[in-house]
Design a protein that fits this description.
Layout lengths: L7 E7 L11 H4 L4 H15 L1 E7 L3 H11 L5 E5 L8 H10 L3 E5 L21 E4 L3 H17 L1
Parallel strand pairs: 1-2, 1-3, 3-4, 4-5
The protein binds 1,3,4-trihydroxy-5-OXO-cyclohexanecarboxylic acid.
The site of 1,3,4-trihydroxy-5-OXO-cyclohexanecarboxylic acid (DQA) has 10 residues, from loops.
Length: 152
Amino acid sequence: MAAEPEEVRIAVVHGPNLDLLGQREPEAYGRQTLAEVNQQLADAARGLEVEVEAFQANGEGELIDFIHDAASRTAGFLVNAGAYTHTSIALRDALVGVGRPFVEVHLSNTQAREEFRQRSLLAPKAVGAIMGFGVESYILGLNGLVSHLRRG
Ligand code: DQA
């Protein structure tokens, strides 16, 4: 009997302060909690026949350690790096260093906000970036990443 094809696994990386979703600046980030975002991602993943593994941390080092650790079991990363998007060369180096494609997502439209949010250190290395659609940004990003991976 032919072996089942191995399931594609995507790691979702949530950066600093995203643990506060639901209570944090709801006018910018909506009222859904991180648990609800992860549930929606798991539901969407089931429809796409992929698996998602979600991780959140507030520290840059913890996020980098997770990326290093998860890379060997992960086809690609879906990343909302929060404020580190705008500041962290180390996070960019980690994502590039593990050699897996990644898609950048943001709940808010960072291009329509303060100037310091308009620059992303990650986007030039990403497959693509999706922003401004609230939780839907993650779902659109997941779809884009999976299409990218399936195109080969
Ligand atoms: C964010 C945008 C960032 O500028 C901000 O620091 C966040 C959330 C977003 O999802 O809209 O923490 O990444």
